[in-house]
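One-letter codes give the sequence; each number marks local geometry. A record appears below:


***
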Amino acid sequence: MRHFPTGVTVVTSVREGEPRGLTVSAFSSVSIDPPLVLICINREARSYLFISESKVFCVNILSGDQQQLAERFASKIRQNQFEGVPYEVGVTGAAIISGTVAHLECEVAEEHHAGTHSIFIGRVISCASRSGSPLGYYSGAFHDFRIRIV
């Protein structure tokens, strides 16, 4: 799979007022009408319970200069995960991280188990974007997927 370039997101959720997030590259569009996306989350991850129980998540599509956030949310930080991370609370209650290229707030429409992971299909209820280049991952390294128009 390291030969397939992918975008990098931080998926956030909330449970009992506590925000939680994890770095996710398994993210895809499912449908335009209705607007649906999917994420794949390991059921051993602490964030899995936040999404499964709250039934909400926010996909934050990282910008090319947010590699440190990707690394932070990929680590095993258990306490104060959002300390020093600028964000606002969205309509779902999940964190919208500042400076991202885009975000999609979702309500869980379906959950399917596949091996060690759950596939969450989310109905997009709010989204926004800004100009900028997205952060990507390819062949074991992060890359700024700067858009080049020829």
About this structure: The first helix runs from residue 46 to 54.
